[in-house]
Amino acid sequence: MRIGDSEDEGSFRAELRSWLSGQIPSGAPHSWSSEQLRSWSRSLYQAGYAGLSWPVEHGGRGLPPAYQAIYAEESARAGAPDHVNVIGLNMVGPTIIRYGSQAQQATFLPRILSGETIFCQGFSEPDAGSDLASVRTRAQAHPDGYLVDGEKVWSSYAHLADYCLLLVRTDPEAVKHAGLTCLLLDMRAPGVQVRPLRELSGDTDFNQIILTGVRVSSDTVLGPVGEGWRVAMTTLAHERGTFGITLTSRLSAELDRLIETVLALGADSDPLVRKEIAELHLHLQGLRFTGYRALAELRRTGEPGAESSILKLGWSVANQRLTALALRVLGPDAAFDGPDAFWGGYWQRQHLRSRTNSIEGGTSEILRGIVAERVLGLPRTR
Amino acid sequence: MDFTLSQDQRELKAAARHYLSQSYPPARIAELSDGAGWDSAAWPELVRQGWLDPELGAVELALLAEEGGRVLHPVPWWVTVALALPVYQAAGLDLPGPATLADGSTGCRALRQPTGWVLDGLLPSVPQAGLATEILVAARTAAGIALFAVDPDAPGLTLTERAGLDPLRIVAGLRLAGAPARLLLDAPAAEPVLASVERRAGLLLACEAVGVADRVLELAVDYAKIRTQFGRPIGSYQAVAHQLADSYAAVELARSLAYRAACVLDDEPGDAAEAIACAVQAGTRAAVSGCQVAMQVTGGIGVTWEYPLHRWYRRALFLQARAAAGPDPLAVIAGELLQAARPAPEPIEGALASA
Questions:
Q1: A30 SS3 class
Q2: A47 touches chain B (CB under 8 A)
Q3: Would you tell me which residues 337-356 of chain A have a C-beta closer than 8 angstroms to some C-beta of chain B?
Q4: Does the first or last residue of chain A, that is N or C, have fewer Cβ atoms within 10 Å of its Cβ?
């Protein structure tokens, strides 16, 4: 049992840290425009930091998941944004590697790596949220392909995306999980309309995708027709190994920012603030080292350990608590969120955004159900 | 980064679990709890199995403590390895048998007399002193704190076992009135050894708490699978299942923190304060709340004397109380974080306004 990097991991981390420090300005947190995000992704590709754990034959560096985790930690520490093609790199790409035809691999993989083709994901629908298998977006067979009609929601990056991994129903007669298929949809095809989804924070992190009579050819099907559920689940599973570490790394950077705020406002002598900061740190370290355990288990057995199932659940609770404390520390000034507010209203925005954390990527109720059923072996709750 | 048990460590854990589960089913624990208070015959076997080897690293000790917590291992192992063994080791002595340590750095005075050292003082809570073949005492001398060994039958020593919440962890009061003592470590050598005892005690307490939390979760889950109401196993109700899922999360976070603290203690013992504080706080909390959830899930049966759950709850409460005798974990953590933090950069005006 070892904490700390191996020699190779350590030199990778040191190189990455020094590269990042030359790229990311320090100072108070700020947000990034779409153009800045795209340019950031190009820099990552040129520096060799895209596709760290992708197989070498598909253009990746073939590194173990620990390196992806180091990337997550260092980029969060430096305040770097998400790769604009995070869905392509971490979810769709590995799924194409597993299920894609040779032609699909040749077309998409190099472009995902370079950031030239940005992917989004079209899974959730207005009536298929937690109950994802009840998707209704219909793909009707027609000569040479399908005609797609339906509506997708909560799709990150759809407003920037070139392609979408779309989960559709190809067989309306089949029950639920059967009869689903995955398509690689060109977002510029006629009949595809993207509308921003404005959240309660005022941000538009997500989008709605309206599909009206969209014609797609049959070579856009990813994996076998009717096996879309399995393909979609592979997509979600690819993130399990390192996603938890991505989350805790960001939480750690956020806690550092909270501590800066507390010191800047002189709240560090308040015993309740001290206690809550200690509680948050404790929770964060618990998540962080649980993430490391899951990662080690992934290396040892090829599967992340069962304990990885609690990371997203625990992260959402901690992030919500952290941003709530930030607003309490701001005191009466927490009511302002304009340019004249502390850090330009950073904490107000983060707090409102954090309410989404226990919904997005699996609600806390669904996640507790997964732990109960698959980890503890309790009987199904539904 | 390879934060997982080695093959040897896995085997050690599995062997400990096998031995303990064979030796101490809940009925046996209940019998010892209500009777002798410990399994006096087990000590030679523990020595034989290597549970008291001075070479065991912090991770190995952590695993044994965790497994001990699962069954409520009814021997004075933790006082011996956490409190006493580091002192004997530092003094270059072999362990004489079960032993404990009384912290008399404020309440006990040592005087050198022509016949040797004698101790005077009142030590109100010495864990498991009644089971010790020798009691170690940290006492004040003219030169500073020193460590002594006292024979429990020594003249001038009165030992009174106090009624306690956990009958398998009886704490005794000691009155020393000119009791003869043997000097093991003089000032200033004693001070760093006491600091290392405090760290080790914190770690093993946290690990034992993880074992308690783990076992009561298992107990509650097993019950929720077989107890049927309204025609369904109660574990199929979300109100029950989700409480157990939260207990699971608390156990896993606490376990990660306990193993991390063990690694830090092995690698950089001087820098372990924050890691141990995290482990102690998370572990004792997971144990106490885990027992409470288990009592709720096991319902009427769970709150009877007959059902063994209260034995673990008593241990959880004992560990929580014991932790309160050490430094406040949250104060330790807050102190490190707010001291270590860099001064805040100037906020960039309007930084987010255009986003």
A1: coil
A2: no
A3: 338-340, 342-346, 349
A4: C
Q: Residue B347 above 50 pLDDT? A: no
**How many of the other CB atoms lie within 10 Å of CB of A220?**
19
B352 pLDDT exceeds 70? no
pLDDT of residue A235 exceeding 90, the answer is no
* Chain-chain contact of B334 with A274 (C-beta, under 8 angstroms): yes
Indicate the pLDDT class of residue A81, thresholds 50, 70 and 90.
confident
Does the interface ipTM go beyond 0.85? yes
C-alpha span between A239 and A285 (Å, rounded): 20
pLDDT at A308: 83
Cα separation, B80 vs B88, in Å, equals 10
3-state class (DSSP) for residue B152: coil
At residue B107, does pLDDT exceed 60?
Answer: yes
- At A189, the pLDDT band (50, 70, 90 cuts) reads very high
Q: Is B216 within 8 Å of B312 (Cβ atoms)?
A: yes
Amino acid at A308: S
Does A177 score more than 90 pLDDT? no
Predicted confidence (pLDDT) at residue A291 exceeds the cutoff of 50: yes
> For residue A64, is the peptide bond before it cis, meaning its omega torsion is within 30 degrees of 0?
no
Residue by residue, what is the 3-state secondary structure of A234-248?
A: HHHHCCHHHHHHHHH
Q: Is the pLDDT of residue B355 over 50?
A: no
Q: Are the beta carbons of A262 and B338 separated by less than 8 Å? A: yes
Q: For CA atoms A71, A73, A78, A84, give the dihedral sign.
A: positive
Extended beta strands in A67-179, E state: 119-122, 138-142, 145-156, 163-169
Q: Is A280 exposed, middle or buried (0-12, 13-18, 19+ CB in 10 A)?
A: buried
B 54-73 residues with CB < 8 A to A = 59
Residue linked to tokens 């770690």? B203
Task: Specify whether the CB–CB gap between B200 and B261 falls below 8 A.
Answer: no
Out of B3, B278, B348, the one facing A28 most closely (by C-beta) is B348
Q: What's the pLDDT band for B313 if we cut at 50, 70, 90?
A: very high
The reported pTM is: 0.94
**Hey, are the CB atoms on B236 and A256 less than 8 Å from each other?**
no
Asked if the C-beta of B248 comes within 8 angstroms of chain A's C-beta atoms, the answer is yes
- Beta pairing partners, B180: B118
B11 phi and psi angles, rounded to 5 deg: -65, -40
Q: Measure CA of the first residue to CA of the last residue in chain B; give whole Å.
A: 37
A381: nearest CB among B236, B249, B275: B236
Using CB atoms within 10 A of its CB, is residue B208 exposed (0-12), middle (13-18) or buried (19+)? buried
Structural contact between residues A227 and A181, judged by C-beta atoms closer than 8 angstroms:
yes
DSSP B59: H
**Assigned token pair, B316:** 């959880």
Tokens of A169: 């129903």
Length of chain B equals: 355
B261 Cβ partners below 8 Å, 6+ apart?
Answer: B62, B202, B203, B206, B272, B275, B276, B278, B279
The residue type found at B85 is L
Residue of B150, B192, B148, B294 lying closest to B235 (CA atoms): B294
Per-residue pLDDT tens over the stretch B124-162: 999 999 999 999 999 999 999 999 999 999 999 999 999
**How many residues does this entry show for chain A?**
382
- Res. B21 pLDDT band, cuts 50 70 90: very high
Give me the amino acid identity at A378.
Answer: L
Binned at pLDDT 50, 70 and 90, residue B349 comes out as very low
Tell me the β-bridge partners of B111.
Answer: B118
Q: What is the rounded average pLDDT for all residues in chain A?
A: 92
Question: Which ranges constitute the DSSP H helices of A187-345?
Answer: 228-237, 240-264, 271-301, 311-330
Which pLDDT value is given to residue B159? 97
